[in-house]
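Allow me, if you will, to draw on your knowledge of protein folds for a short while. The matter concerns a single protein, recorded as an amino acid sequence and a row of backbone structure tokens. Kindly check, if you would, that the fold set down in the tokens agrees with what the sequence suggests. You will find the record immediately after this paragraph.
***
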Amino acid sequence: MQTTFVLTIVVGAPVVATLSLFGPPLPTWPARAEFAVRVGAVVWILVALGVFLYARSRQDRPSTDPE
């Protein structure tokens, strides 16, 4: 869960900033906040799915830790 949170911030902040520069006009703070939440939600879903699939693929591999 921490990985998902950190990756969402690291990936999402630049994505929101870039899209806000070239996207629709955002004249008010509520419009800016709504835009950030909508874009951030999409980023969060994509990051969460990516982290889940990565963790699932790592779970199937045998451990290389000698005991």
About this structure: Residues 29-59 form the longest helix (31 residues). The CA atoms of residues 16 and 36 lie 6 Å apart.
